[in-house]
Write a structure and sequence with these properties.
Length: 126
C-alpha cells in the first residue's frame, strides 16, 4: 500500500523500499526541504535502507547544496532522477558532484525502481 504525503514543494509517495517525489512546477528545491525528507526517513524507513526517486515531470530548480545535507541521511542508499529532458540530464551531472551516494538518471520510473531495488537488496543500515 502506498502512502501519499503533500508538502509545499510537492508530492511524496512512500513505497516499501523507496519514495517517489514529484515537485511542483516552478519551485526552487532548497536545503531546508531536507527536514521533511529526514522526517519521512525516520518515520517510514527507520533502520531500513531506502531509495529516493525524483520524477521530474515539472520544471523546477535545484540548489545543489541540498545534496550535501541529503548525503547525511544514513539509510538513504540510492538517489535516482527520472527525466527525458536534455536540460535535466545535464543538471544531473552537476548534481552528482554534491551527493555522496549512488546517483543515476533514468528515462522511466520502472528503470529507476529496478536499479534502486538491486542496490537496496545488498545493503544493510546500522
Amino acid at each position: 500500500m502506498t502512502t501519499v504525503l503533500q508538502f509545499e514543494f510537492g508530492k511524496v509517495e512512500i513505497f516499501d523500499f523507496y519514495i517517489v517525489t514529484t515537485m511542483k512546477e516552478g519551485i526552487i528545491v532548497i536545503p531546508e526541504y531536507n527536514n521533511e525528507l529526514i522526517n519521512v526517513a525516520n518515520k517510514y524507513f527507520k533502520n531500513k535502507p531506502f531509495a529516493y526517486i525524483t520524477n521530474r515531470v515539472n520544471s523546477y530548480s535545484v540548489d545543489p547544496k541540498i545534496y550535501i545535507e541529503t548525503s547525511k541521511i544514513k539509510n538513504l542508499v540510492a538517489f535516482a532522477v527520472v527525466t527525458k529532458e536534455a536540460i535535466n540530464m545535464s543538471n544531473v551531472e552537476v548534481e552528482k558532484i554534491f551527493l555522496k551516494k549512488p546517483f543515476q538518471q533514468f528515462e522511466t520510473l520502472d528503470e529507476a525502481i529496478y536499479w534502486a531495488k538491486h542496490i537496496i537488496k545488498d545493503t544493510t543500515v546500522a
